[in-house]
Design goal:
The structure holds two protein chains of two kinds. Chain A is mainly α. Helix content of chain A is 67%, strand content 2%. Chain A has one domain (36-220). Helices cover 37% and strands 21% of the residues of chain B. The chains are: A mainly alpha, B alpha+beta.
């Protein structure tokens, strides 16, 4: 896939629309048809770990979007300067710096979030999606396209983890963004009525189940089969 | 394209320097803000031992600072329970003592901060005493704040924090329902022996009738054992101070 796009790029004219069909495809492909989590099955570790609640998941999603867009941009800008023999370590250095930056900012402005996400922000470095896009796309494409590609992939990752978090927090803790939903519903039906929460959803097992169901539904719809 | 070694080395050096400057620059700029956030977090943890978590969450940072200033007084004691005001010529305050650093010293040489939660509107009336505790979990350090009622026996509340326990397992010591289990438990047995409160192995049993036991953490036995050791050892260290300030023995000790 990477080599295709790299070769096609040469043929494209200078005056391409800011959001041409091809560029839109860069962004929308990873959302469903080529989703990093459900199709490529990358970045599972963090998808399982941070998704017990919506709020930390949202922060995680935003962090990944920032890191991916900035990493794709910088690697793409440097793509003709980066020595091929050390390119992996250069990518790693750039990604690690960006992640450290995110971590520092969180520590300063959202200390509770910083404590809650703890090690998982640092683990964005090892998120295969980030390095995968750098290696497969940013190294061979122009900066603007790379930004779109990074944004699309990160968005594909984000909506999946947010969906998982939605169900896990709703069923596991009976709330969304910390706002109790189940209690509200229960009180509508009188004091005897109680919606039960499922402890399984809070544990990583719950994430596996939700993610599995999500992949199932999606693959049934798109007809994707692994070869 | 094959680049020369010189090019690769130069590129790497430039990249390292640029990224290094970027990172150290941001760290330097953000440091004061991070420090403030950290201090606020410590205050929240201290207050968490005597207040409900959602009550604290509802407060704004400035409110927490004022509340802390109005209601918490602090002092520093040594292992004998005597108040310490300066060490090596420098003044010591409870807020500036790094319990973690003191933990590395021998218990006799450590300084022990004590935070006193005052009754509302009356600076001399003690509502509860809050003692910092510190120890080792499974992967890294754990610490917390234990609040005792004025009888110096009954636990008013407790908060735990950790540096690197496993999320979902050992890290559960930070969750409110685990900390709630310590409430109203007693650290002395009938014969007056300091027995602390011990987290049991396994989870799901009811220990409400037993004043020295709390339900354990399933899958996090080593963290639980760390918590037990931490509580026991620090209660021993504070024992002298507790004896002196026990309600009834020396009423309303200097505050």
């Amino acid at each position: 896939m990477s080599t295709d796009t790299a070769e096609k790029e040469i043929a494209i004219k200078e005056s391409e629309a800011l959001l041409s069909k091809r560029r839109k495809k860069l962004m929308t492909d990873p959302l469903v048809d080529d989703n990093p989590i459900t199709i490529q099955v990358l970045g599972i570790c963090s998808a399982l770990a941070v998704t017990t609640q919506m709020q930390p998941t949202l922060v995680m999603a935003l962090s990944v979007i920032f890191v991916m867009v900035m990493a794709n941009l910088s690697i793409s800008l440097l793509r003709n300067k980066i020595p091929t023999r050390v390119r992996i370590i250069v990518q790693l250095a750039v990604v690690a710096s960006l992640v450290t930056l995110v971590n520092e900012v969180l520590q300063a402005f959202a200390y509770d979030m910083y404590k809650e996400l703890s090690v998982f922000v640092g683990l964005i470095i090892t998120n295969c999606i980030v390095m995968g896009r750098l290696e497969a796309f940013a190294l061979g494409n122009k900066p603007y396209d790379s930004v779109l590609d990074g944004f699309g992939s990160a968005l594909g990752y984000s909506w999946i983890i947010l969906t998982v978090a939605f169900f896990r927090e709703l069923w596991g803790s009976g709330s969304l963004f910390g706002i109790p939903i189940f209690d509200g519903i229960s009180s509508l039906f009188g004091s005897d009525f109680q919606l039960a929460t499922n402890g399984l959803m809070v544990s990583p097992v719950g994430a596996f189940i939700i993610l599995g169901l999500l992949i199932w539904v999606q693959r049934t719809k798109t007809g994707y089969v692994e070869h | 394209m094959q680049q020369s070694n010189a090019y690769i080395i130069t590129f790497s050096i430039i990249l390292t320097v640029v990224l290094g400057l970027l990172l150290s620059g941001t760290a330097e700029v953000l440091k004061p803000i991070q420090k403030k956030a950290e201090e606020l977090d410590t205050k929240k943890q201290i207050l968490g031992a005597v207040m409900a978590a959602d009550e604290i969450d509802a407060m704004k940072p400035e409110e927490i600072n004022t509340f802390y200033q109005n209601r918490i007084s602090s002092k520093v004691v040594n292992i004998e329970g005597e108040e310490v005001e300066e060490q090596d010529g420098a003044q010591v305050t409870a807020e500036t003592i790094d319990v973690g650093k003191n933990y590395k010293k021998a218990p006799e040489d450590r300084l022990y901060p004590v935070f006193i939660f005052q009754e509302e509107g009356n600076e001399d009336a003690v509502a509860s005493y809050i003692f910092p505790v510190y120890g080792n979990g499974l992967w890294d350090n754990i610490w917390g704040y234990l609040a005792l009622q004025t009888d110096m026996e009954t636990i008013e509340g407790i908060t735990f924090s950790h540096a690197g326990e496993t999320p979902g397992l050992g890290a559960r010591i930070t969750s409110t329902d685990v900390q709630q289990r310590y409430k109203e438990k007693s650290i002395y047995d009938e014969s007056g022996e300091l027995v602390s409160v011990v987290m049991q192995k396994g989870e799901g049993k009811d220990y409400s009738g037993e004043p020295h036991k709390v339900d354990g953490l399933s899958g996090a036995t080593i963290t639980a054992e760390g918590v037990n050791r931490m509580l026991k050892s620090y209660l021993e260290h504070y024992k002298a101070y507790m004896e002196k300030n026990k309600e009834g023995s020396s009423r309303m000790a200097s505050n």
